[in-house]
Design goal:
Elements: E1 2-8, H1 24-39, E2 46-49, H2 53-66, E3 73-74, H3 83-88, H4 101-119, H5 131-148, E4 152-157, H6 159-170, H7 174-183, E5 189-194, E6 199-206
Parallel strand pairs: 1-4, 2-3, 2-4
Antiparallel strand pairs: 1-5, 5-6
Helix pairs in contact: 1-2, 4-7, 5-6, 6-7
Organism: Rhodoferax koreensis
GO molecular function: phosphatase activity
Pfam families: His_Phos_1 (PF00300)
Length: 222
């Protein structure tokens, strides 16, 4: 039986012109996770990652913290949905930069509404696949792991694909999958035990590498 470690990327640049870039905090989170994994003696036989910049940077930070060279198999099916395109399906007008708590909450209320409609097949965000196809890209990565590996595997992705993977394993509704998605923290670890036949959820959204008072301020969501 193997273990698949699904890691959400470190803090990106929410509210900035280019979101797909780790912040300094995100880089620290990634390296710290790698240090923790090395301290636990975890050895990976393979790695997969989405093709976004924040995925590559997070994977590099983990490897740096572990002191290893572990190339990741690039897997586009692990890329995040386009949140702006999702929001545009329910709010076509441009949104103000979310630089206040109220605007931040408004952004995520619209995102939740758009995701619900996309996942239920009501809307088709511009430039995005259907949710059925999005889900199939995630499930294909899971199938790749369980059919080709037997040990520890690292997977670096985003909140949407990781929540979709959990929803697939547990058989959750779209609404529950969305709630899982919006609670996943930066650099959080979700673990699946796997056999050649199936995946089984072991842990969800954990931050063992930040479980110390010195790192209390490192916990972020966006």
């Amino acid at each position: 039986m193997g273990t698949l470690y699904l890691v959400r990327h470190g803090q990106a640049s929410f509210g900035a012109e280019a979101y797909d870039q780790l912040s300094e905090q995100g880089l620290r989170q990634s390296r710290r996770l790698g240090e923790y994994l090395a301290h636990k003696g975890i050895v990976f036989e393979a790695a997969l990652a989405g093709t976004l910049r924040r995925h590559a940077q997070t994977h590099a930070g983990i490897c740096d913290g572990m002191g290893i060279d572990l190339p990741a198999l690039a897997w586009p099916g692990l890329n995040e949905y386009d949140s702006a395109a999702v929001i545009a399906t329910v709010h076509p007008e441009p949104l103000a930069k979310p630089d206040t708590p109220e605007l931040y909450r408004h952004h995520f209320r619209l995102l939740r509404d758009g995701l619900t409609q996309w996942m239920n097949g009501v809307v088709s965000p511009r430039g995005m696949p259907s949710y059925t196809d999005f889900r199939e890209g995630v499930v294909a990565a899971l199938d790749h792991v369980r059919t080709r590996h037997t040990g520890n595997v690292l997977l670096v992705s985003s909140g949407g694909p990781i929540a979709t993977a959990v929803g697939h394993v547990l058989g959750t509704t779209p609404e529950t999958t969305i709630e899982l998605n919006l609670r996943i923290r930066n650099s959080a670890v979700t673990e699946f035990a796997f056999t050649p036949k199936r995946h089984m959820l072991e842990t969800f959204n954990t931050l063992p590498h930040l479980d110390h008072p010195d790192h209390a301020g490192w916990i972020t969501y966006a």
